[in-house]
Write a structure and sequence with these properties.
By secondary structure, this protein is of the alpha+beta class. It is built from twelve helices and 22 strands. It folds into two domains: 165 residues, Jelly Rolls; 217 residues, SGNH hydrolase (Rossmann fold, 3-Layer(aba) Sandwich), CATH 3.40.50.1110. It is elongated, with a radius of gyration of 23 Å. The mean pLDDT is 90.
């Protein structure tokens, strides 16, 4: 007979049965009178195509609650074992980025819980397993840090105390990223300035990984100055952004406007896009315009106006454009059954992000990712099937070739 009294599918809107028949309850916020619930935070469901590495818990780990204060569980006095699961499914290179603390009933269990590092990589679960003796009336799990995440919580009655254990939830083989071809390589430095259209699926890192493992003898190093929903104007008004452009010594600076910049504030997008382009050129760097448009189901005129504005800036200033929105629209038209978006229907999903990275690869190298010597890997972590990668590569190539010369570097 099971001694488990709570299993929670954190961030999930429905009950989920895992691979060995255990049911994890749909998440909910705590309210007075409830026996359990979450305290604060937001929820997200990762796309179905994302390969989560787990023998039994992949579907449980697909949802998460993030930015939360904690969870409260009503219990009787006694001895319990508490298990907290967290998997990094947002950032593919989070080893030094996401760390947070976890305490239970006021006792700190883990001061620096780092799911990516402790699990061994992306889309793998780390677990805290700890004893908890309480006189009641509850077990209060608290998360410390703005970037806290949790995917699942399990609480069971215990006959004896287990030792505290913090580490990988399962023994899985470590990820093996593609290796760069041998021989000397020429450094290429890139700065990405934008918003969530750039940092979802870490477009900078994916572009760098594609080029660095390709046949060209380049070694791309990237930096990013991104913040959700921000515009050209917002970035221009930050001294630290202007200073980084001036002093960074970058070969290329990528500029990405907010999704509705061209439709809601076209004059502002034009004015501050021009200022950023001029600043990039004055610093001796080359501007790249990341023509991005994300939301699923947006009216066609939004796409048209966004493309028109990026094209105008590109032509007026001889700035190279990366026609990601054209490739995305073409791909959605040809194969509408494919999911190119995150479940929020706004940001790019894994297929959309690989499509965008393929556009950058084509523009920068004048070659196709279809000819890349390694199997397609997004963000150096997540494999894309061969058939899907070939399709996305073809749509990226078509878009970049169709928009020449605005998607072709004038000086290479």
């Amino acid at each position: 007979m099971s001694n488990v009294i709570y299993r929670v599918n954190c961030g999930g809107g429905q009950d989920v049965t895992d691979g060995i028949g255990r049911t994890w309850s749909a998440d909910r916020l705590f309210a007075e009178g409830d026996v359990w619930g979450a305290c604060g935070g937001n929820t997200v469901l990762r796309e179905a195509a994302l390969p989560i590495l787990s023998q039994h818990m992949a579907e449980v780990l697909r949802s998460e609650r993030h930015g939360l204060d904690g969870y409260r569980f009503k219990v009787e006095p006694g001895r319990y074992t508490v298990r907290v699961y967290a998997a990094e499914t947002f950032e593919g290179d989070s080893e030094s980025k996401r760390e947070f603390g976890v305490s239970i009933n006021g006792r700190m269990i883990a001061e620096s819980f780092a799911p990516y590092r402790m699990s061994g990589g992306f889309a793998r679960a780390a677990r805290i397993e700890t004893p908890c003796r309480t006189e009641g009336p509850e077990i209060d799990i608290r998360f410390h840090g703005k970037r806290a995440i949790v995917n699942a919580i399990e609480i069971e009655r215990a006959e004896f105390e287990v030792p505290v254990s913090i580490g990988a939830a399962e023994a899985l083989a470590p990820p093996v990223p593609p290796l760069a071809p041998a021989g000397p390589r020429t450094p290429l430095r890139m700065l990405f300035i934008g918003n969530s259209g750039t940092f979802y699926w870490d477009i900078p890192k994916t572009v760098a990984a594609l080029i660095n493992t390709g046949a060209l003898k380049w070694q791309v190093e990237t930096e990013a100055m991104t913040s959700g929903g921000k515009t050209f104007r917002w970035h221009w008004e930050r001294e630290e952004v202007r200073e980084r452009i001036r002093s960074g010594g970058f070969d290329y600076v990528v500029l990405q406007e907010a999704t509705k910049g061209a439709t809601d504030k076209p004059d502002e997008m034009r004015e501050y896009g021009e200022k950023l382009i001029r600043a990039v050129r004055e610093a001796g760097s080359k501007p790249l315009l990341f023509a991005y448009y994300g939301p699923q189901g947006a009216p066609p005129e939004y796409w048209d106006r966004t493309l028109a504005m990026y094209t105008e800036l590109s032509r007026a200033h001889q700035a190279t454009m990366v026609p990601a929105l054209v490739a995305l629209r073409d791909a959605m038209s040809e194969r509408p059954e494919v999911n190119y978006h995150n479940p929020d229907r706004h940001h790019s999903g894994m297929h959309g992000a690989y499509l965008f990275a393929s556009c950058f690869y084509r523009v920068l190298t004048q070659e196709s990712t279809a000819e890349h010597p390694y199997p397609a890997v997004l963000d150096n972590q997540v494999p894309i099937t061969h058939e899907m990668a070939r399709f996305l590569s073809r749509k990226a190539d078509d878009a970049c070739l169709r928009l020449r010369p605005w998607s072709e570097l004038s000086q290479r």
